[in-house]
Specification:
- By secondary structure, the chain is mainly alpha-helical.
- It has helices at about 5-20, 25-45.
- It has two helices and no strands.
- The longest helix has 22 residues, at about 25-45.
- It is elongated and about 35 Å long.
């Protein structure tokens, strides 16, 4: 099984440059990198099983 992380893949380079420039901690960099992906997954999970409203 392959883990696909398109949000992380698309933002990694820019965030890595910003982290270096801003002297961001490793944990800060990871938080910035993972937050958009987690929000996308959370939003998709909320929509699973939801019934359309009439």
């Amino acid at each position: 099984m392959m883990l696909r992380l398109p949000t992380i893949r698309s933002q990694f380079g820019d965030l890595a440059e910003a982290a270096t420039r801003d002297q961001m901690s490793y944990l800060g960099f990871l938080a910035e990198l993972l937050w958009p992906s987690a929000a996308t997954v959370t939003g998709a999970a909320r929509n699973v099983g939801s019934k359309p409203r009439p």
